[in-house]
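Need tokens for this chain, all 801 residues.
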Amino acid sequence: MDNLNDEDVLPKLIEIPEITLGFINNQPFNPLRNPSKFGDLAIQLNTKCTHLQTHLQNLHTTLGSLLVSWTSRTIRAKSSLEDFTLSLENLSIISSHCGNRAQSRKIEKIVGNDLPYIARELQRIESIRAYAGVALKLETLVGDLEDAVLSALNKSTGYIFSRNDPSPSILGDFYTKLDNVHRAVKAVNNIEELLLNVLKDHPQWRNLLKAVDARVDRTLGVLRPQVIADHRSLLASLGWPPKTLASNTQDREATGIPNPLILMQGEKKQSYSQSFLALCALQHVQLKREGRHRILSGQKMEETLGLWAIDELVSSLASKIELHLLKWVDKPEFMFALVHKIISDFIEGVDDVLQPLIDEARLVSCSAKEAWVSAMVQVLSGFLGRKVLPTLVERYKEKASKSDAISSWLHLIDEIVRFDKQMQSLISSDTYLLPGSERSMSALSLFCDRPDWLRIWAKVELKDAWNKLKTELKDERAWSSDHKPETKNQHFLSTREDHKAPLAADFALNKAREMIQRCQTLPGSARRIQFIKSAPCKFLWHFFKIMLSRHKSADFLGYDAEQNLVRVCQLINAARFSECKLKEWSDDVDLLELRLAEKGLNFDANGSYFFDEEIESLIEMETTWVMELITHALQQFENYSFHYFHNTEQFELITEKAVTVSDDLVEALDNLRSLLLLIKEHLNDNDFLDTWRSIADGLDHYMFRSLLVFGIRFSVMGAEQVKADMQGLFYAFKAFCVRPEAFFPCIRDLLKVLSLDRKEVEDLKSNLDNTKCSDRLLTYGISSLSVDQVLRVLNKRTFLV
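Here are the structure tokens for all 801 residues:
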């Protein structure tokens, strides 16, 4: 033993590398415990080394032969290409010198037919080569995916946590399984990238895409249920779901529900985090695959708020929640209160614990709060659709219980609307609502797939609003306006008082607005449009019919003509107020979006409204009724002024006297002024402005034409009488403008002609008779009368000889 060198001494056990120790320990016999076996181990290792060296030499030989073969093929291909090039050069030389027609045709055939065929074959070979290369890559990636899934399925974890911490072996198997899941996700990502390139560059390879999708779908169809099952087991071992009801019996105040997500610590939190990330990664690749399928089919990608991991939290809670909801089918306020409490109690914990994990998973535009609220709302919506609404529908269809069903239906909708607003307030403060998220965030989504229920809801709302309106209209005071005191030159009308609109119009519009707001959280533009057209719009049309019916009962010729005139003014105000409100509502963002959805790209934002038909009907009614007021005023004036125009002697007087307004015109002017003041008192400012100006314009033409039509000749005193009478007419409009004569252009010019003396009349007549030029009239300030009209007035002038 003294003669042994250092290299002949075995190393100490602690000096042996771990890899070597592992190799030795995995042998059927342990040489460390039985040193005599080291010789057998050495012989075995030498034999294996000899075999490996022989195999390596064979590989070198095979590689060399392959290189020689490839080199010879390359040389032959190069030689063939050189020969082909030389043939083409000879062909061009022959074709340039050959005069033989037959040979030229042969050459043309080669160039025209054979070369394109060769090019097509080369292209086909290249396409086959590319196809084979892509197929080989996909086969490799799909094989990796299947291997990873198989490895993940071979690991069975079961409940990871109990009262005691799990053993390292269980945790090791659990993390190994999650690693395999991530391997599978990575393989799917690689497959998707390659398939997207194929879809972009080679869309004709659809069969290859279908074959790969079939294998991937089959593999993921096995992996996803297993990962979800493991996640559920993990949740159960962590104490989820918690007890849904915890109360303090002493003070009977509800206490907060304990949140196991916040209570997780150490390995529990780490295990849950890794499982959550794995599930998110699996969902992410599934969404990528669905997006590619939608691109392939030309469909639009839908936004979604759901996260599988959060859905699992909610699904395990759902069964416990429904046990309580079943007790309160007839008391929806309790159902919504319970769900709201659960959402509120857990939302902060969900945001604090899960949002960092979502960010770590790099899920863009995903919110833990929104996903939590969305999943809980869908649980409630599903319960209402299964257990509550079907019963209400049956009760609604039965005549005996229809009245109670309507009350219950309206109460349920009230609670849903209130609940939806609460959900929006929970997340709207610091969370951005994604496009398309409104469906999953609203309990009204239960109507999206049931248009028959939506129609019943619209009928219920319409009937309730109509009954309330009829009750309101039983009191005649509903048509009073109680407008506020007028302010000078106020033509911008905003409130009901500004429009002098009756209370009935305000009540009807408020009911319609309430119905529109109740469906504001109803998902889907088509469904909202359907509801608004079926309930609020129909309700407005019913109110318009009431206005028309009330107008038919108005008779200006009756003994209560003044009262009927006030009634028409009220209806005009109601129409004007309704028109302005509907235009104002149409400018709302929600209704603008509905208008875009309804009309498409042909929507004209400047001249089109959501309530187009209703607004057009109101404008037509308003215009018709205003024209009735104008016609009534002009007819009244015509009736009262009948004797004035037939008394021609007053315009031919020779003797001078004090000139005042003609007695035959005083009553007409007094009645006109009283009528205008009455209209001004009861009609809104905008319509009254149009009304009195239109009356002035009508009187202007009527007075001028009447003075010309009748056989009237104007003496000097007669001209003064006309001036005095017209000043009286102007005075009737003095309360509405500073210079009323500006709105009587024909009468104004008539007075200018009547103011001319004899010499001016003669000069003007001679000039107009010779030239018929209207420019001459401008020198006298006459701009509204034609030459013929002026000549007719001049010919009616008489002067003393």
